[in-house]
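Handout, section B. The chain below has 278 residues.
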Amino acid sequence: MFRLLERYLVYPTPRVEKGDWNPRWLEQEDVTFESSGGVQLHGWYAPFDGAERTILYCHGQSEHVGQMVGLVLRLQSLLSANVFVFDYRGYGQSQGVPTERGCIADGLAAQQWLAERTEQLPEDIVVMGRSLGGGVATAVATERGARALVLENTFTKLTDVGDYWFKGLPARWFMREKYDSVARIADYHGPLFQTHNLEDKVVPYKLGRQLFRAAPGSHKQFYTSHGGHFDVPTKAYYDRLLKFLRVVDARQRRGNRRMTLFTSARDCDAELLTSAGW
């Protein structure tokens, strides 16, 4: 009984017909790809002319791809990005039934598909997640790496949200879905940009701050904004995020140049040793 209630609360999948599956203003590739267990997933890949980066976006618990046209257009134009949005198992046009293990596997499969489609390494992709999708994104970035991890209105772990919603009840004792991001993020040392709305009544602001403090990386930034859990981020937020991502890109280019110079010097030394008869 409690298991059914938990699934209903954690995964309130919206009806498929509540969305625009043939958007007029968005040019996208309709994608089907396979996740663990042979589950077939659905997503949209939306390339952007002159893109500076590629973003994998992990949506929240009550959304599906058909409701994300506006979001994809914002990410493209405001962050100069190719964008891949996908549905976890049981959402939208994807097969299966959602579980924590399954949704994280779906995020990893989406990252791998996107890496192959764009001819990049998985760790060269910006991984972005909102709310429940923040739990998926954190797991993906920790396991496979990311150019940057971007988190919006997400939590430390789902049991903390359960305690907030069901005060006085031992919700955490019965919850199987943990999404323990605060433990996972301890193993992520890459760039992190995180935001949370002060008036969020679904996932308290303090949980976002606690997650941010647990991240060990040196290149991280927290952006506080006003609004509720479901409010659309402001342009000021996207401007700050774009600036952060450009700094990440610049550092990556400098690192690549240093590695090229080191490799060239090492090869030159090897040539000298060979010619000297060593």
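Note. The beta strands are 29-34, 40-46, 53-58, 81-86, 126-130, 148-152, 192-197, 220-225. Compare this with the example in section A.
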